[in-house]
Amino acid sequence: MKKLILISVLFLAFVAAGVWAAKVYFFSKGALVMVQIRPGQTGSDVARLLKAKGVIHSEFLFKALLRLTSSSKDLKAGRFDLRRNTSDLEVINCIKTGRCTHYEKITFLEGWRSEEMAEELALHGVTDAHEFLNLVRAQDLEGKLFPSTYLFADNTPAQKVIDEMLGQYRKKIAPLFKKYKTDLTERQVLTLASIVEREAVVHDERPKIAAVYLNRFRMGKRLEADPTVQYALGFALNENRYWKRGLTYKDLKISSPYNTYRNVGLPPGPICNPGVQSVEAVLNPQPDFNALYFVADNTGRHVFSHTFREHTQNIKRIRGR
Q: Residue 29 — pLDDT band, cuts 50, 70, 90?
């Protein structure tokens, strides 16, 4: 009797272990993997890919279930985030509905010009750079493409990308114009803010830098802002980047409406896409700050001065001349 009980216990333990192993093998989901399905791939192609990625266990069973429930034409092309060891039906439904579509995380930095944004979008396969730039220029949107982190699917229409960024602009920037009173137009504010964005390194200096440019603008003095020249120069081939470093006297003479060393007043429009802090600095500059000049020191900060003589002395002192 005791022997029979022992055999029964061992049998039940064996069955339980088998059930547990089967559950782990067939039903316990594993690590997340990204699967790319290309246009025109057959059901067999998709099954082979999913098997290789460890998402499904059997190509045969997947294809059979696909024939019973739908068609390979129902499977969307694109990149999908799937987990290893997922049931065939769940995989099919996920790809058909696009519920598990892979989204690229794209971060646009404050102070980027639209060309830099276009390149980042194309690099991650989100949208065509030329189409994006053509729409931005046609709609004159430089300065309104809100710099932030976004999630975009592959091959998102360029206008949809733009609309998402404009939506964030309306949410984060537009309310500032109601919060602060100004005699400047929205475009003027964005233009000045874009210059402040490229000049400022330390946040607490933004209101001071904004005040300097506002003082010069309202006095009718040339802004003489290096970033506007960098914008006019475009892509620096020798540096393989935008925003050329170390401007020369020849650079400062470039013939462009954006060159504020040659032209009085503001450039035609924003030179980049500023963040909230730079726009706020223009709308709410440092009060009673009458400085007209500033120069970068060796720490990332700036030294401000009221007269040109004081400014040149600061330059000599900082550069050790």
A: low
Residue 48 sits in a domain whose CATH number is: 3.30.1490.480
Does 86 share its domain with 127?
Answer: no
Residue 28 has pLDDT above 60, yes or no: no
Contact 271, 226 (CB under 8 A): no
Return the number of other C-beta atoms located less than 10 Å from residue 192's C-beta: 28
Say what the pLDDT of residue 7 is.
54
- Residue 22's pLDDT is what? 40
Residue closest to 272 by CA, chosen among 209, 200, 223: 200
Q: Is this model's pTM higher than 0.70 or not?
A: yes
HEC states along 57-107?
CCHHHHHHHHHHHCCHHHCCCEEEEEECCCCHHHHHHHHHHCCCECEEEEE
Q: How far apart are CA 271 and CA 61, in angstroms?
A: 57
Task: Tell me: pLDDT of 47 over 50.
Answer: yes
- Average per-residue pLDDT in the chain? 88
The C-alpha atoms of residue 63 and residue 73 are separated, in whole angstroms, by 13
Residue 39 CA to residue 19 CA, distance in Å, equals 39
Domain match, 41 and 112 both: no
For residue 74, what are the domain limits?
31-101
Amino acid at 262: R
Instruction: Please give the sequence-ordered ranges of beta strands (E in DSSP) within 264-314, or none if there are none.
Output: 293-296, 302-305
Q: Strand pairing partners for 35? A: 80
